[in-house]
């Protein structure tokens, strides 16, 4: 069984690895030579819009998916016209535009921060008046890891923010006073069977995910998140793994965004859950029974940003699992991640502290 994957980043690499024992061979399309996925599957080096490359993939593969949400929808739709592609190009399109995404949440009764589309400086000033400050001006498209965002603290900031981001489709969002950031990783099969992982708690540094770990069990919060997740999955007739990012606020959960793919905040599932998010994505898109999503024990994941710590020293800490994506170092770049497992919370904390020393030193 050959699986086409649009995008050969680390998510594609980990999908391909999960596919090996299941008899699935990955064929990637990615314009970037030597992308991480090329270490574990064949890579076609071409633009996503390259119809000849998409035709080639469709003759070599029986099924397709993607590993990032900025895949051009046209390319996904073209491939979907030749071989089954999951998640659908429609789900992809919804996730690419923050305004459509938040409007969808709102239509499903999933609470969000207050938001308004902004197309001019006058509209920005009016929206800031209605939503109140502080607020965040964001690009509707291609924003990730806090990029394409400007914070407005007082009305005098409007002109500078407009100067910085104006000329693109924008959205203004009220700043939410959240206690913590959570994410829900969900999987859904074509039949509608769904599975949810325990909520993960995420800590960001400079807008980039730094640590992710299963949150302490909270049945009411889990049920609320799953209810929102199910509404979204069913509305999109979704197939595959989806990540729903949430703010945990005094008034309840607010949805920030969703990613129509496996997600960085689900990497701990490789060693920390009975079935990883990567395997469950493959099971879902192949319409195979979904695997159990329960925890195997205490665990946490740390991202390696900008530099990889010394593998041997990390592995000297019991319970550590190193994932090196093989990327060349650049400040702030996600180069790998480390999952720490432990028999109990006390050991997990000790091991995370030991790892912290190595991450700081590197
Ligand atoms: P995003 O690109 O929307 O995921 O935003 C990146 C990060 O900025 C989030 O993980 C939050 O830490 C923060 N952030 C985004 N939107 C808001 C908001 N409306 N209120 C407060 N913090 C936010």
Mean of the pLDDT scores? Answer: 96
Tally of distinct domains:
3
Instruction: Please give the radius of gyration in angstroms.
Output: 20 Å
Task: Report the sheet-strand fraction.
Answer: 25-35%
CATH class of the largest domain: Alpha Beta
Secondary-structure element order, N to C: EHEEHEHHHEHEEHEEEEEHEEHHEHEEH
* CATH homology group of the largest domain: ATP-grasp fold, B domain
Runs in which pLDDT lies below 50 for 5 or more consecutive residues are none
Ligand set: adenosine monophosphate
Write down how many β-strands occur, each being a DSSP E stretch of 2 or more residues.
17
Distance between the termini: 41 Å
